[in-house]
Amino acid sequence: MLRLLFWIALIATAYWLWRRFQQPSPRKETAAEPEATPTVRCAHCDAHLPKDRALSTGEQWFCSLEHQRLGKHD
Ligand SMILES: [Zn+2]
After folding, report:
1. What per-residue confidence (pLDDT) applies to 17?
2. Strands 60-62 vs 55-57: parallel, antiparallel or unpaired
3. Total structural domains in the chain?
4. Which residues fall inside 5 Å of ion ligand 1, going by CB?
5. What is the pLDDT of residues 17-48, one digit of tens each?
6. Burial group, residue 9, by CB count within 10 angstroms (0-12, 13-18, 19+)
7. Helix or strand holding residue 55 (H, E)
8. Cross-strand bridge partners of residue 48
9. Which residues are CB-contacts of 73 (< 8 A; sequence separation ≥ 6)?
10. d(CA 30, CA 8)
11. pTM over 0.70
12. Span from the CA of 36 to the centroid of ligand 1 (angstroms)
């Protein structure tokens, strides 16, 4: 009886490990998504860029110092 339980446990562990290797890591999938970094639009040229690379003036965002200086387009 104990031997049978040992084999069941061994097969269950092997199956669990096999499933783990078959499925890609959910962490990797999240990192690959473009929504991971929020994007903002330059108020001057309407270019989309990651928020961490954009420059802000009040509520407006700009892609570069040049466009920040020129300000919002008409
Ligand atoms: Zn711009």
Report:
1. 92
2. antiparallel
3. 1
4. 42, 44-45, 47, 63, 67
5. 999 888 766 665 555 555 578 999 999 999 99
6. exposed
7. strand 55-57
8. 41
9. 43, 44, 45, 46
10. 35
11. no
12. 22
